[in-house]
Amino acid sequence: MKLFNNKTLLVLLLLISGYGYMISCTRDNDLIVPVQLTQPFVPNRGNNVHTPGTQTAGDPAQWKMDKSHSSVLWSTSYVGASGLLTGRFNQFGTHEVTAAEMQNYTTSGQPLLDNSWAFNESDPSQTFINGYVQINTSNTGEPGRDAGCNISGMGTTAIVSGTQNLNVTNIAKIKSTKVELDPTSNGYIVTLDFTWQGKLTSPLTKSIVGKLNYVPKSRIASATPYDVFGLQLLFSFNCRDFGITSTSIADKIDIECNMNFHNK
Amino acid sequence: MDDSFFSYLERLQIMGFFVAYPIVYLFVKSFFSGAKNERISQLPFFLSYAYALVGTLYVGLLIRDLYPFSSVLQNDSSNLFSFLKIWGLLSLIFWIPKIAKQPVFSLLHSLIFFYFLVKDLLFFTIKLRDETVIKNDMRVFTDSLLLNIISLFFIFLIALLYRWVKKTT
What we know:
The complex is a heterodimer.
Chain A: H1 6-24, E1 49-50, E2 64-65, E3 71-77, E4 84-89, E5 92-93, E6 104-105, E7 117-120, E8 128-134, E9 138-139, H2 143-146, H3 149-153, E10 164-165, E11 171-181, E12 188-196, E13 204-220, E14 226-238, E15 252-262
Antiparallel strand pairs in A: 1-7, 2-15, 3-4, 3-15, 4-9, 5-8, 6-10, 7-8, 8-11, 11-12, 12-13, 13-14, 14-15
Chain B: H1 5-18, H2 21-32, H3 38-41, H4 47-66, H5 83-89, H6 97-100, H7 104-127, H8 131-168
Helix pairs in contact in B: 1-8, 2-7, 4-8, 7-8
């Protein structure tokens, strides 16, 4: 059999040209008809303005945080690789806690007025949020864990009944530094300063970006009608930044603050 | 041959005529030589003439290019007597029956154009990784394949018609 007979050469040339076709087939000439599957987002925001005022009861212009119907929830991946481990903080508030205010308060109610916030639906530059949680009030539904490894793992002290502990080791705070309109939703993009000592020797402040959603004002019909609205703030932080070494939780902790307000 | 854009166009132009001829030639030689049907078995005999016909069409294109404003290449005087053009014009010699009797020469003649295709395949896929040139080459290759097949069957039909007319008269 000759090395270069006609059929061998034909196969060779066909392979070369076939390779050429394969390389050149980039499908650039395919007729692609763009189909718009989703419509561009059109914001639908009102002009509601809510401020706390002096928290005077009965003044419908002054909005009060409804603590018993609000929550601060946390969640993280269990052992960093499994399903979610979740919990809530039983004690929290919307007050900008100053250094002087970081102390124990002998009360079972809110130790400080929840008045360090404002919300303007159409002008986010007028919106600001301050808040805090008491770390030792983390509640996962397992008392052994909440009063056990949570206390030592988070670098805080156990709950003292009848005392609100706003000491530096037991408080984590947020303070908004910038609020912008979210171009993809009716919500807002919030830049926060997140301050917590954790297991460090002194508090550390980290700038974090979160998402704020507004649940518009509604009238509640009752013997004395009143209005309610809601704010939901979502953000995440890395607990390793704050010296937390527990391997039961992942690096990233997600926080969800569901704040309900009324003007009763 | 320099690397100017006009030289590239000229090369694409001439490849469009001759580059796929080796495939047609080898296919016909492989599958139609010694075919049971007497007429079909004569198909390889017409390969040289089909090649010469393609060459003639190429000459027609060159003549058309000589007219003002007929082609982007017509003002480029450097291309008037390039190697490829002269090589393409040489395909006309396959009209000469004595040369046409050796169709392997037409294969050798056309392989030079196939060489450019192989060169582009190697250079632009391995070294530069640019499919654009390959895409152009393969479009031209497809056109050339169609042209050479049509040319062969045209010559074959003319020959059959000529024999039929000769037989009936």
